Amino acid sequence: MVPSPLALLLALGAAATALAEPLRFVDCGSVDGSIQEVNVSPCPTQPCLLHKGTSYSINVTFASKIESQGSKARVYGEMLRVDIPFPIPEPDGCKSGIQCPIQKGHSYSYLNKLPVKSEYPSIKLIVKWELVDDQEQMLFCWKIPVQITS
């Protein structure tokens, strides 16, 4: 029996949806926005296994509660309740999928990369990702557990 094209399409759609499952995250202080979804790709299970020398795609869908001319991302590795800055290639939110100026009541898809350098230690930690508006208020802040591995 040959499957119908519709059955194949539905099966492929289900598989694609399974790969892009939104992550369970902790909101750590989104004041000027509300997070609708966080995706880290590839990260099929949690904690996310981050392999050294690999770059991961970050996609955050959020709604803004304010107007802002710009936005800036700050990323940290949280260990023993201490935030260690984690450099990312593009901290400017307006160059990361967000149409600026940011409008109140609009939804946005923030897109960025999380590079995991080869020299990072193999360790379990919390990734904390903030996006602040031009008044340094939180558009969003989320945390997920990760494990850096070889």
From TrEMBL:
Signal peptide segment: 1-20
Name of this chain's protein: NPC intracellular cholesterol transporter 2
One Pfam family recorded for the sequence: E1_DerP2_DerF2
GO molecular function annotations of the record: cholesterol binding
Record-stated family: Belongs to the NPC2 family.
Domain MD-2-related lipid-recognition: 25-146
InterPro entries named among the record's database cross-references: Ig_E-set (IPR014756), ML_dom (IPR003172), ML_Npc2-like (IPR033916), NPC2-like (IPR039670)
Species: Myiagra hebetior
Alphabetical UniProt keywords: Disulfide bond, Secreted, Signal
Protein's GO biological process: cholesterol efflux; intracellular cholesterol transport
Domain of life: Eukaryota
Main location group: secreted
Subcellular locations according to the entry: Secreted
Record carries keyword Membrane: no
GO annotations of cellular component type: extracellular region
